[in-house]
Write a structure and sequence with these properties.
The complex is a heterodimer. Chain A is an all-alpha fold. Chain A folds into 2 domains: about 30 residues; about 220 residues, no CATH class. Chain A is built from 9 helices and no strands. Chain B is α/β, with parallel strands linked by helices. Chain B folds into 2 domains: about 35 residues; about 100 residues, no CATH class. Chain B has 2 helices and 8 strands, in the order αββββββββα. Classes of the chains: A mainly alpha, B alpha/beta. At the A-B interface, helix 2, helix 6, helix 7 and helix 8 of A face helix 1 of B.
Chain lengths: ~260, ~180
Amino acid sequence: MMSYVQSLGSWGLATLRDYGRAGILLSRVVFAVPNVRKGFPLVLQQVYAEGVQSLLIIVVSSLFIGMVVALQGYHTLAKFGASQELGPLVALSVARELGPVVTALLFAGRAGSALTAEIGLMKATDQLSSMEMMAVDPMRKVIAPRLWGGFISMPLLTMIFNAVAIYGAYLVGVKWLGLDAGAFWSNMQASVEFHSDIVNGLLKSLVFGFVVTWIAVYQGYDAVPTSAGIAKSTTRSVVYSSLAVLGLDFVLTAMMIGGW
Amino acid sequence: MISERMVESVVGLFLIAAMGAMLVLAFKVSGLTSFFKPEGYMVTAQFDDIGQLKTRAAVKIGGVTVGEVAGIKLDPVTFKAVVKIQINSRVKDIPVDSTATILTAGLLGDNYIEITPMYSSEFLKEGSEITETHSAMILERLIGQFMYKVGGGSNSDSSTPSNNANAEPKKEGVTQ
């Protein structure tokens, strides 16, 4: 009996220690004095690795998501004779929810896992400690650029996701199912509002980008330096960031819903 | 390994693509015409009942949108709804005796305000009030009134004898 209580206690302490280490990692990155001249090319490199290279999966999946939402929505709306409202349906669901959330999930799978594996392997092959021995701060050289790169890339990817998804809906709704193009766009413009819908969606994606890269970087930095440890960390990175994204999405939506 | 130059230009293209997507979202999807509040002047109108009218609802003259509802609040003394209406500055010279009516777009659509111009030579300006207003038609109330009329017509026939029946005992009471 007592041993169960003890194991619960040790689990609790280990979890708290985990959170604490993650917080220390974050504060060391965020509150470091930035070196713009040296740091900027490194961040650029990471925007390329995390943002540009995720572009293909984002564009393809957003096109198909927009198309399938339009197809599903059209058949349901047509039952009520409201197929003219397809534009608002797609634009609102994409800008408010699907855009930020699906981009974050794809980003966690595509870029977050790569970050964790890369940093974990750097740790396992003692690259991080050898950097320290050469008086190069691995926080500055490795961790910070990756964190800022993900933080910058996520909202940009979400913007592209939203625009492409709405274009996909336009292809299905107007070009295939034969809705009127003018009604499609003007109904959309009448019900989508820039600040409360699109900017709030981008705020969400900013938070998601921050959380996903933070979790990915921390899991890599904290990985057990063996091949099994890296595998475990990579899995954990994807699972935790997906759960965090979905949970935070609910919280953020509940906070923003007053404006809708 | 790609050269630094290549990375920079590809990231630049990525940024341009994202900004382009943002512009599409802003102007094509949300119909944002300017980042600032459109210029215009505020007038107020008091309604007994605004129904489902919301802020940002359209204000129209002859079906053409000329402004939007900027705010709705309750007058604490008269318990009427005070609606602040913003009218575009290019729509000038709306006569001061015009009427404001709350209408519904379609059967189930949103409410909007229709201003019907009248013939005064004085015009609405910043801060003036539209005094002639018609409240929103509320479907339940309409049905209620209809039922009352239909039901009331047959009731009044049947109620007259019952009234008499009620009156008779009273009379008896008086006579006793």
